[in-house]
Amino acid sequence: MTTSTVSDRIFRSVNPADRTDTVAEVPLGAADALLDVFRTAKQAHEAWAATPAPVRGRVIAAFGRLVEANAESLAGLVTREVGKPLHESRGEVQEIVDTCDFFAGEGRRLYGQTVPSEMPDKQLFTFRVPVGVVVTITAGNFPVAVPSWYLVPALLCGNTVVWKPAEYAAACADALLSLARAAGVPAGVLEVVHADGPTTFEALSRGLEESLVDKVGFTGSSEVGARIGELCGRHLQSPCLELGGKNPMIVAADADLDLAVQGALFSGYGTAGQRCTSLGTAIVHESVHGEFVSRLGQAVEEAVVGDPRADVLYGPLISEVFAERFEEYLTWIGPHHRVSGSTGRGRISSSNPRKGFVGDPEPGHFYHPVVVDGVRPDDRLFLEETFGPIVGITTYGTLDEAIDLANLPGYGLSSSVYTNDPATAFGVRRGLRAGMLSVNNSTSGAEAHLPFGGNGRSGNGSRQSGIWVLDQFTRWQAVNWDYSGGLQRAQIDTAQIDADPGFRLT
Protein backbone atom coordinates (compact mmCIF):
# COMPACT_ATOMS: atom_id res chain seq x y z
CA MET A 1 0.00 0.00 0.00
CA THR A 2 1.01 3.59 -0.49
CA THR A 3 1.81 5.59 2.60
CA SER A 4 0.08 8.94 2.41
CA THR A 5 -2.14 10.90 4.75
CA VAL A 6 -5.73 11.22 3.57
CA SER A 7 -6.21 14.63 2.05
CA ASP A 8 -9.04 16.59 0.50
CA ARG A 9 -6.64 17.30 -2.38
CA ILE A 10 -7.05 14.50 -4.88
CA PHE A 11 -4.88 14.21 -7.96
CA ARG A 12 -6.41 12.52 -10.96
CA SER A 13 -3.92 10.76 -13.24
CA VAL A 14 -5.33 10.48 -16.74
CA ASN A 15 -4.35 8.62 -19.88
CA PRO A 16 -2.62 11.24 -22.08
CA ALA A 17 -3.80 9.42 -25.21
CA ASP A 18 -7.40 9.58 -23.98
CA ARG A 19 -8.07 12.21 -21.36
CA THR A 20 -11.48 10.70 -20.60
CA ASP A 21 -9.71 7.65 -19.12
CA THR A 22 -8.85 8.12 -15.44
CA VAL A 23 -5.96 5.81 -14.54
CA ALA A 24 -5.73 6.64 -10.81
CA GLU A 25 -6.94 9.04 -8.17
CA VAL A 26 -4.54 9.60 -5.28
CA PRO A 27 -4.67 11.85 -2.23
CA LEU A 28 -1.80 14.33 -2.07
CA GLY A 29 -0.19 14.29 1.34
CA ALA A 30 0.69 17.40 3.34
CA ALA A 31 4.24 18.17 4.50
CA ASP A 32 3.51 16.78 7.99
CA ALA A 33 2.45 13.48 6.41
CA LEU A 34 5.71 13.22 4.49
CA LEU A 35 7.69 13.93 7.65
CA ASP A 36 5.87 11.10 9.40
CA VAL A 37 6.98 8.77 6.62
CA PHE A 38 10.57 10.02 6.97
CA ARG A 39 10.40 9.16 10.66
CA THR A 40 9.04 5.70 9.89
CA ALA A 41 11.91 5.11 7.48
CA LYS A 42 14.38 6.32 10.13
CA GLN A 43 13.01 3.81 12.63
CA ALA A 44 13.12 0.96 10.10
CA HIS A 45 16.69 1.64 9.04
CA GLU A 46 18.59 -0.09 11.84
CA ALA A 47 16.97 -3.49 11.28
CA TRP A 48 17.27 -3.32 7.50
CA ALA A 49 20.93 -2.24 7.66
CA ALA A 50 21.62 -5.15 10.03
CA THR A 51 20.12 -7.61 7.54
CA PRO A 52 23.06 -9.38 5.85
CA ALA A 53 23.77 -7.93 2.42
CA PRO A 54 23.42 -11.33 0.67
CA VAL A 55 19.92 -11.60 2.17
CA ARG A 56 19.07 -8.12 0.89
CA GLY A 57 20.42 -9.28 -2.47
CA ARG A 58 17.99 -12.19 -2.47
CA VAL A 59 15.12 -9.76 -1.91
CA ILE A 60 16.31 -7.72 -4.89
CA ALA A 61 16.55 -10.92 -6.95
CA ALA A 62 12.97 -11.82 -6.00
CA PHE A 63 11.85 -8.32 -6.94
CA GLY A 64 13.39 -8.73 -10.39
CA ARG A 65 11.70 -12.08 -10.93
CA LEU A 66 8.31 -10.67 -9.92
CA VAL A 67 8.72 -7.72 -12.27
CA GLU A 68 9.64 -10.17 -15.03
CA ALA A 69 6.60 -12.33 -14.31
CA ASN A 70 4.33 -9.27 -14.42
CA ALA A 71 6.15 -7.49 -17.24
CA GLU A 72 3.28 -7.29 -19.70
CA SER A 73 0.84 -5.89 -17.14
CA LEU A 74 3.34 -3.34 -15.89
CA ALA A 75 4.29 -2.29 -19.43
CA GLY A 76 0.62 -1.88 -20.30
CA LEU A 77 0.15 0.36 -17.29
CA VAL A 78 3.15 2.51 -18.27
CA THR A 79 1.69 2.95 -21.75
CA ARG A 80 -1.73 3.80 -20.38
CA GLU A 81 -0.55 6.28 -17.76
CA VAL A 82 2.26 8.18 -19.52
CA GLY A 83 1.57 7.44 -23.20
CA LYS A 84 4.82 5.65 -24.01
CA PRO A 85 4.61 3.27 -27.00
CA LEU A 86 4.17 -0.28 -25.84
CA HIS A 87 7.51 -1.49 -27.23
CA GLU A 88 9.27 1.27 -25.25
CA SER A 89 7.30 0.39 -22.11
CA ARG A 90 8.39 -3.22 -22.43
CA GLY A 91 11.98 -2.08 -22.74
CA GLU A 92 11.58 0.09 -19.65
CA VAL A 93 10.30 -2.84 -17.62
CA GLN A 94 13.21 -4.95 -18.86
CA GLU A 95 15.54 -2.25 -17.51
CA ILE A 96 14.20 -2.96 -14.01
CA VAL A 97 14.89 -6.67 -14.46
CA ASP A 98 18.42 -5.94 -15.68
CA THR A 99 19.04 -3.61 -12.74
CA CYS A 100 17.87 -6.26 -10.26
CA ASP A 101 19.99 -8.92 -11.94
CA PHE A 102 23.10 -6.77 -11.60
CA PHE A 103 22.58 -5.63 -8.01
CA ALA A 104 21.45 -8.98 -6.66
CA GLY A 105 25.06 -10.05 -7.14
CA GLU A 106 26.35 -6.94 -5.40
CA GLY A 107 24.75 -8.31 -2.23
CA ARG A 108 27.64 -10.80 -2.15
CA ARG A 109 30.25 -8.18 -2.97
CA LEU A 110 29.95 -4.63 -1.59
CA TYR A 111 33.69 -4.95 -1.28
CA GLY A 112 35.86 -3.06 1.18
CA GLN A 113 39.64 -3.35 1.25
CA THR A 114 42.36 -4.61 3.55
CA VAL A 115 45.15 -2.03 3.55
CA PRO A 116 48.73 -2.61 4.78
CA SER A 117 49.71 -0.59 7.84
CA GLU A 118 53.01 1.23 8.27
CA MET A 119 53.08 -0.07 11.85
CA PRO A 120 53.74 -3.67 13.02
CA ASP A 121 50.93 -5.73 14.55
CA LYS A 122 48.28 -3.47 13.12
CA GLN A 123 45.65 -4.01 10.40
CA LEU A 124 43.70 -1.46 8.36
CA PHE A 125 40.29 -2.05 6.79
CA THR A 126 37.64 -0.15 4.87
CA PHE A 127 33.91 -0.90 4.88
CA ARG A 128 30.92 0.38 2.96
CA VAL A 129 28.11 1.43 5.30
CA PRO A 130 24.62 2.59 4.26
CA VAL A 131 23.91 6.32 4.35
CA GLY A 132 20.55 5.96 6.14
CA VAL A 133 17.25 7.36 4.86
CA VAL A 134 17.18 8.09 1.13
CA VAL A 135 14.50 10.36 -0.31
CA THR A 136 14.05 9.79 -4.04
CA ILE A 137 12.11 12.22 -6.25
CA THR A 138 11.57 11.11 -9.83
CA ALA A 139 10.00 12.34 -13.05
CA GLY A 140 7.30 10.46 -14.91
CA ASN A 141 8.80 10.08 -18.38
CA PHE A 142 10.43 6.85 -17.18
CA PRO A 143 7.97 6.06 -14.39
CA VAL A 144 9.43 2.68 -13.34
CA ALA A 145 12.90 2.21 -14.88
CA VAL A 146 14.59 5.37 -13.59
CA PRO A 147 13.14 4.95 -10.08
CA SER A 148 14.61 1.45 -10.03
CA TRP A 149 18.06 2.99 -10.58
CA TYR A 150 17.63 4.61 -7.15
CA LEU A 151 15.50 2.12 -5.26
CA VAL A 152 17.34 -1.10 -6.09
CA PRO A 153 20.93 -0.08 -5.20
CA ALA A 154 19.80 2.01 -2.23
CA LEU A 155 17.88 -0.92 -0.73
CA LEU A 156 20.66 -3.37 -1.56
CA CYS A 157 23.16 -1.19 0.31
CA GLY A 158 21.01 -1.25 3.46
CA ASN A 159 19.20 2.07 3.23
CA THR A 160 15.54 2.76 3.72
CA VAL A 161 13.86 4.69 0.90
CA VAL A 162 11.01 7.17 0.66
CA TRP A 163 10.00 7.61 -2.98
CA LYS A 164 8.06 10.61 -4.26
CA PRO A 165 7.05 9.87 -7.86
CA ALA A 166 5.58 12.34 -10.33
CA GLU A 167 1.91 12.80 -9.60
CA TYR A 168 0.96 11.94 -13.19
CA ALA A 169 2.68 8.53 -12.80
CA ALA A 170 1.05 7.59 -9.50
CA ALA A 171 -0.43 4.28 -10.65
CA CYS A 172 2.92 3.06 -11.98
CA ALA A 173 4.58 3.91 -8.66
CA ASP A 174 1.94 2.09 -6.64
CA ALA A 175 2.25 -0.96 -8.89
CA LEU A 176 6.03 -1.04 -8.47
CA LEU A 177 5.65 -0.72 -4.70
CA SER A 178 3.24 -3.66 -4.60
CA LEU A 179 5.78 -5.81 -6.47
CA ALA A 180 8.51 -4.78 -4.04
CA ARG A 181 6.30 -5.67 -1.09
CA ALA A 182 5.56 -9.08 -2.59
CA ALA A 183 9.31 -9.61 -3.06
CA GLY A 184 9.91 -9.16 0.66
CA VAL A 185 10.76 -5.47 1.05
CA PRO A 186 9.28 -4.63 4.47
CA ALA A 187 6.93 -1.76 5.19
CA GLY A 188 8.94 1.22 6.36
CA VAL A 189 11.96 0.14 4.34
CA LEU A 190 10.37 1.36 1.11
CA GLU A 191 7.46 3.79 1.10
CA VAL A 192 5.76 5.81 -1.63
CA VAL A 193 4.35 9.25 -0.93
CA HIS A 194 2.22 11.32 -3.29
CA ALA A 195 2.59 15.08 -3.02
CA ASP A 196 2.94 18.13 -5.20
CA GLY A 197 6.25 19.91 -5.77
CA PRO A 198 5.99 22.75 -3.21
CA THR A 199 4.84 20.35 -0.50
CA THR A 200 7.68 17.97 -1.25
CA PHE A 201 10.24 20.77 -1.11
CA GLU A 202 8.86 21.97 2.24
CA ALA A 203 8.95 18.45 3.69
CA LEU A 204 12.45 17.87 2.36
CA SER A 205 13.70 21.11 3.89
CA ARG A 206 12.21 20.22 7.27
CA GLY A 207 13.42 16.63 7.03
CA LEU A 208 16.99 17.76 6.43
CA GLU A 209 16.73 20.27 9.27
CA GLU A 210 15.55 17.52 11.66
CA SER A 211 18.22 15.05 10.44
CA LEU A 212 15.55 12.67 9.15
CA VAL A 213 16.97 12.60 5.62
CA ASP A 214 20.49 11.38 4.88
CA LYS A 215 20.53 11.38 1.08
CA VAL A 216 18.44 12.92 -1.69
CA GLY A 217 18.15 11.52 -5.19
CA PHE A 218 16.43 13.66 -7.81
CA THR A 219 15.63 13.21 -11.48
CA GLY A 220 14.03 16.19 -13.17
CA SER A 221 14.68 19.65 -14.51
CA SER A 222 17.95 21.52 -14.08
CA GLU A 223 16.12 24.41 -12.43
CA VAL A 224 14.56 22.28 -9.69
CA GLY A 225 17.78 20.29 -9.35
CA ALA A 226 19.69 23.48 -8.64
CA ARG A 227 17.26 24.32 -5.82
CA ILE A 228 17.59 20.84 -4.33
CA GLY A 229 21.37 21.00 -4.61
CA GLU A 230 21.39 24.36 -2.81
CA LEU A 231 19.10 23.02 -0.07
CA CYS A 232 21.21 19.91 0.49
CA GLY A 233 24.41 21.94 0.46
CA ARG A 234 23.19 24.00 3.39
CA HIS A 235 23.09 20.74 5.35
CA LEU A 236 26.47 19.55 4.08
CA GLN A 237 24.89 16.84 1.95
CA SER A 238 25.69 15.96 -1.64
CA PRO A 239 22.56 14.88 -3.54
CA CYS A 240 22.43 12.56 -6.52
CA LEU A 241 21.16 14.83 -9.32
CA GLU A 242 20.19 13.52 -12.75
CA LEU A 243 18.92 16.54 -14.66
CA GLY A 244 18.09 17.75 -18.14
CA GLY A 245 20.10 17.73 -21.33
CA LYS A 246 20.58 19.49 -24.63
CA ASN A 247 22.18 16.47 -26.18
CA PRO A 248 24.22 16.97 -29.36
CA MET A 249 24.72 14.59 -32.25
CA ILE A 250 27.77 15.32 -34.40
CA VAL A 251 27.45 13.99 -37.95
CA ALA A 252 30.87 13.88 -39.59
CA ALA A 253 31.58 14.12 -43.31
CA ASP A 254 32.26 10.38 -43.50
CA ALA A 255 29.17 9.33 -41.52
CA ASP A 256 26.76 6.65 -42.67
CA LEU A 257 23.88 9.06 -43.22
CA ASP A 258 21.15 6.42 -43.21
CA LEU A 259 22.38 5.22 -39.83
CA ALA A 260 22.66 8.78 -38.53
CA VAL A 261 19.09 9.51 -39.61
CA GLN A 262 17.86 6.38 -37.82
CA GLY A 263 19.67 7.50 -34.68
CA ALA A 264 18.28 11.03 -34.93
CA LEU A 265 14.75 9.72 -35.45
CA PHE A 266 14.90 7.43 -32.41
CA SER A 267 16.67 9.79 -30.03
CA GLY A 268 14.86 12.92 -31.19
CA TYR A 269 11.32 11.61 -31.31
CA GLY A 270 11.21 8.41 -29.25
CA THR A 271 9.03 8.92 -26.16
CA ALA A 272 7.82 12.02 -28.05
CA GLY A 273 11.19 13.66 -27.35
CA GLN A 274 10.50 13.52 -23.60
CA ARG A 275 13.73 11.95 -22.42
CA CYS A 276 16.56 13.66 -20.62
CA THR A 277 18.77 12.00 -23.27
CA SER A 278 16.66 13.10 -26.24
CA LEU A 279 18.53 14.61 -29.17
CA GLY A 280 18.59 18.39 -28.95
CA THR A 281 20.70 19.56 -31.89
CA ALA A 282 22.24 17.69 -34.81
CA ILE A 283 25.58 19.34 -35.63
CA VAL A 284 26.21 18.29 -39.22
CA HIS A 285 29.30 18.76 -41.36
CA GLU A 286 28.66 21.32 -44.09
CA SER A 287 29.49 18.83 -46.85
CA VAL A 288 26.62 16.48 -45.91
CA HIS A 289 24.27 18.97 -44.29
CA GLY A 290 21.79 19.26 -47.17
CA GLU A 291 21.53 15.51 -47.67
CA PHE A 292 21.10 14.85 -43.94
CA VAL A 293 18.33 17.45 -43.62
CA SER A 294 16.53 16.00 -46.63
CA ARG A 295 16.71 12.43 -45.37
CA LEU A 296 15.72 13.29 -41.80
CA GLY A 297 12.83 15.44 -43.00
CA GLN A 298 11.53 12.58 -45.11
CA ALA A 299 11.93 10.08 -42.27
CA VAL A 300 10.03 12.35 -39.88
CA GLU A 301 7.28 12.94 -42.41
CA GLU A 302 6.84 9.19 -42.94
CA ALA A 303 7.02 8.25 -39.26
CA VAL A 304 3.90 6.73 -37.73
CA VAL A 305 2.49 8.69 -34.78
CA GLY A 306 -0.56 7.97 -32.68
CA ASP A 307 -2.12 5.45 -30.31
CA PRO A 308 0.79 4.18 -28.17
CA ARG A 309 -0.71 0.69 -28.06
CA ALA A 310 0.04 0.43 -31.79
CA ASP A 311 3.38 0.20 -33.58
CA VAL A 312 4.17 3.92 -33.60
CA LEU A 313 7.30 6.06 -33.29
CA TYR A 314 5.70 7.99 -30.48
CA GLY A 315 2.39 8.69 -28.83
CA PRO A 316 1.11 11.67 -26.83
CA LEU A 317 2.92 14.13 -24.64
CA ILE A 318 2.71 13.01 -21.03
CA SER A 319 0.36 15.64 -19.67
CA GLU A 320 -1.26 19.00 -20.27
CA VAL A 321 1.69 20.69 -18.58
CA PHE A 322 4.14 19.27 -21.09
CA ALA A 323 1.80 20.08 -23.97
CA GLU A 324 1.66 23.74 -22.90
CA ARG A 325 5.43 23.89 -22.60
CA PHE A 326 5.87 22.37 -26.04
CA GLU A 327 3.60 24.97 -27.56
CA GLU A 328 5.88 27.61 -26.04
CA TYR A 329 8.92 25.96 -27.63
CA LEU A 330 7.22 26.25 -31.01
CA THR A 331 7.13 30.04 -30.57
CA TRP A 332 10.95 29.98 -30.49
CA ILE A 333 11.01 29.10 -34.19
CA GLY A 334 12.10 32.29 -35.93
CA PRO A 335 12.05 33.66 -39.48
CA HIS A 336 15.66 32.59 -40.06
CA HIS A 337 14.80 28.95 -39.36
CA ARG A 338 13.74 26.41 -41.98
CA VAL A 339 11.12 23.90 -40.85
CA SER A 340 11.72 20.70 -42.78
CA GLY A 341 8.96 18.59 -44.28
CA SER A 342 5.23 19.23 -44.53
CA THR A 343 4.05 17.35 -41.48
CA GLY A 344 2.27 20.27 -39.87
CA ARG A 345 2.92 22.04 -36.62
CA GLY A 346 1.25 22.08 -33.22
CA ARG A 347 -1.45 19.83 -31.79
CA ILE A 348 -2.68 17.09 -34.11
CA SER A 349 -6.44 17.28 -34.54
CA SER A 350 -9.16 16.88 -37.15
CA SER A 351 -8.55 20.48 -38.20
CA ASN A 352 -4.74 20.07 -38.11
CA PRO A 353 -4.36 16.45 -39.24
CA ARG A 354 -1.30 14.29 -39.74
CA LYS A 355 -1.16 11.84 -42.60
CA GLY A 356 -1.03 8.25 -41.39
CA PHE A 357 -2.00 9.08 -37.81
CA VAL A 358 -3.11 5.98 -35.88
CA GLY A 359 -6.22 6.34 -33.76
CA ASP A 360 -8.25 9.37 -32.72
CA PRO A 361 -6.15 12.44 -31.87
CA GLU A 362 -8.94 14.54 -30.38
CA PRO A 363 -8.91 13.25 -26.77
CA GLY A 364 -5.10 13.12 -26.47
CA HIS A 365 -2.02 15.34 -26.25
CA PHE A 366 -0.70 14.49 -29.71
CA TYR A 367 1.72 16.84 -31.49
CA HIS A 368 3.35 17.03 -34.89
CA PRO A 369 7.08 16.29 -35.00
CA VAL A 370 9.25 19.23 -36.01
CA VAL A 371 12.68 19.52 -37.66
CA VAL A 372 14.19 23.01 -37.46
CA ASP A 373 17.18 23.71 -39.69
CA GLY A 374 19.35 26.83 -39.53
CA VAL A 375 19.58 26.90 -35.75
CA ARG A 376 22.15 29.44 -34.52
CA PRO A 377 24.33 29.33 -31.39
CA ASP A 378 22.43 32.22 -29.81
CA ASP A 379 18.96 30.75 -30.42
CA ARG A 380 16.88 29.53 -27.49
CA LEU A 381 16.26 26.41 -29.58
CA PHE A 382 20.01 25.79 -29.49
CA LEU A 383 20.73 26.75 -25.89
CA GLU A 384 17.76 25.42 -23.90
CA GLU A 385 16.29 21.98 -23.36
CA THR A 386 13.11 21.38 -25.35
CA PHE A 387 11.08 18.53 -23.90
CA GLY A 388 9.10 17.29 -26.88
CA PRO A 389 9.27 16.13 -30.52
CA ILE A 390 11.48 18.88 -31.92
CA VAL A 391 15.07 18.63 -33.21
CA GLY A 392 17.34 21.47 -34.30
CA ILE A 393 20.04 21.26 -36.97
CA THR A 394 23.13 23.37 -37.46
CA THR A 395 26.37 23.00 -39.44
CA TYR A 396 30.09 22.96 -38.77
CA GLY A 397 33.30 23.10 -40.76
CA THR A 398 36.06 21.79 -38.48
CA LEU A 399 35.92 19.23 -35.71
CA ASP A 400 37.00 21.81 -33.13
CA GLU A 401 34.05 23.95 -34.20
CA ALA A 402 31.69 20.98 -33.80
CA ILE A 403 33.00 20.27 -30.30
CA ASP A 404 32.65 23.91 -29.29
CA LEU A 405 29.05 23.95 -30.53
CA ALA A 406 28.27 20.71 -28.68
CA ASN A 407 29.59 22.12 -25.39
CA LEU A 408 28.13 25.61 -25.74
CA PRO A 409 24.69 25.11 -24.11
CA GLY A 410 26.40 24.08 -20.85
CA TYR A 411 24.64 20.77 -20.40
CA GLY A 412 26.68 17.59 -20.24
CA LEU A 413 24.50 14.51 -20.16
CA SER A 414 24.52 12.48 -23.37
CA SER A 415 26.02 12.91 -26.84
CA SER A 416 26.76 11.00 -29.99
CA VAL A 417 29.01 11.15 -33.03
CA TYR A 418 28.54 9.43 -36.36
CA THR A 419 31.84 8.71 -38.08
CA ASN A 420 33.97 5.88 -39.40
CA ASP A 421 37.21 7.63 -38.47
CA PRO A 422 38.76 6.64 -35.10
CA ALA A 423 40.58 9.98 -34.90
CA THR A 424 37.25 11.82 -35.14
CA ALA A 425 35.59 9.54 -32.57
CA PHE A 426 38.40 9.90 -30.04
CA GLY A 427 38.76 13.61 -30.76
CA VAL A 428 35.10 14.08 -29.84
CA ARG A 429 35.54 11.92 -26.74
CA ARG A 430 38.38 14.09 -25.51
CA GLY A 431 36.64 17.37 -26.25
CA LEU A 432 33.06 16.83 -25.11
CA ARG A 433 32.05 17.53 -21.51
CA ALA A 434 29.19 15.04 -21.63
CA GLY A 435 29.08 12.19 -19.16
CA MET A 436 28.06 9.77 -21.92
CA LEU A 437 29.09 9.42 -25.56
CA SER A 438 27.78 7.02 -28.20
CA VAL A 439 29.72 6.37 -31.39
CA ASN A 440 27.45 5.49 -34.32
CA ASN A 441 24.50 5.16 -31.96
CA SER A 442 21.82 7.48 -30.67
CA THR A 443 22.01 9.86 -27.71
CA SER A 444 19.42 7.70 -25.92
CA GLY A 445 20.01 4.32 -24.37
CA ALA A 446 21.45 2.98 -21.13
CA GLU A 447 22.60 -0.35 -19.74
CA ALA A 448 22.30 -1.36 -16.11
CA HIS A 449 26.03 -1.95 -15.63
CA LEU A 450 27.32 1.31 -17.18
CA PRO A 451 27.47 4.63 -15.31
CA PHE A 452 24.65 7.03 -16.17
CA GLY A 453 24.80 10.73 -15.42
CA GLY A 454 25.95 14.14 -16.51
CA ASN A 455 27.89 17.26 -15.72
CA GLY A 456 27.26 20.99 -15.81
CA ARG A 457 23.57 21.80 -16.12
CA SER A 458 22.87 18.07 -16.43
CA GLY A 459 23.97 17.12 -12.93
CA ASN A 460 26.57 17.40 -10.20
CA GLY A 461 28.80 14.59 -11.43
CA SER A 462 26.99 11.83 -9.52
CA ARG A 463 26.41 8.61 -11.42
CA GLN A 464 23.68 6.01 -11.42
CA SER A 465 23.86 2.35 -12.45
CA GLY A 466 26.70 -0.12 -12.24
CA ILE A 467 29.17 -0.21 -9.37
CA TRP A 468 29.56 3.57 -9.56
CA VAL A 469 26.19 4.23 -7.95
CA LEU A 470 27.32 2.45 -4.79
CA ASP A 471 29.22 5.59 -3.85
CA GLN A 472 25.89 7.44 -3.76
CA PHE A 473 24.28 5.07 -1.27
CA THR A 474 27.19 4.10 0.96
CA ARG A 475 29.83 5.91 2.99
CA TRP A 476 33.37 4.66 3.43
CA GLN A 477 34.30 3.73 6.99
CA ALA A 478 38.00 3.27 7.87
CA VAL A 479 38.95 0.89 10.70
CA ASN A 480 42.41 0.40 12.20
CA TRP A 481 42.99 -2.50 14.61
CA ASP A 482 46.13 -2.38 16.71
CA TYR A 483 46.92 -5.65 18.50
CA SER A 484 50.51 -4.80 19.52
CA GLY A 485 49.57 -4.27 23.15
CA GLY A 486 50.99 -0.74 23.19
CA LEU A 487 50.20 2.68 21.76
CA GLN A 488 51.62 3.06 18.27
CA ARG A 489 51.49 6.58 16.90
CA ALA A 490 51.33 6.62 13.10
CA GLN A 491 53.93 8.88 11.47
CA ILE A 492 55.57 9.56 14.85
CA ASP A 493 56.60 5.98 15.63
CA THR A 494 57.00 4.81 12.04
CA ALA A 495 60.25 2.92 11.48
CA GLN A 496 62.83 5.01 9.67
CA ILE A 497 64.92 3.73 6.79
CA ASP A 498 68.65 3.83 7.54
CA ALA A 499 70.01 5.17 4.24
CA ASP A 500 73.49 6.52 3.47
CA PRO A 501 72.99 10.22 2.72
CA GLY A 502 76.54 10.52 1.41
CA PHE A 503 76.16 7.93 -1.31
CA ARG A 504 76.93 9.17 -4.83
CA LEU A 505 76.90 7.40 -8.16
CA THR A 506 80.38 7.06 -9.73
Automatic annotation (TrEMBL):
Pfam family, one: Aldedh
Key words of the record: NAD, Oxidoreductase
Domain annotation Aldehyde dehydrogenase: ranges: 8-479
UniProt xrefs under Gene3D superfamilies: Aldehyde Dehydrogenase, Chain A, domain 1, Aldehyde Dehydrogenase, Chain A, domain 2
Catalytic residue list: E242
PROSITE patterns noted in UniProt: ALDEHYDE_DEHYDR_GLU (PS00687)
Ranges of compositional bias, category Low complexity: 341-351
Entry's EC annotation: 1.2.1.3
UniProt keyword Electron transport, yes or no: no
Cross-referenced InterPro entries: Ald_DH/histidinol_DH, Ald_DH_C, Ald_DH_CS_GLU, Ald_DH_N, Aldehyde_DH_dom, ALDH7A1-like
Stretches the record annotates as Disordered: 341-360
Source superkingdom: Bacteria
Membrane spanning residue stretches: none
Subunit composition and interactions: Homotetramer.
Family: Belongs to the aldehyde dehydrogenase family.
PANTHER family tied to this protein: ALPHA-AMINOADIPIC SEMIALDEHYDE DEHYDROGENASE
Protein name in the entry: aldehyde dehydrogenase (NAD(+))
Organism this protein belongs to: Actinoplanes couchii
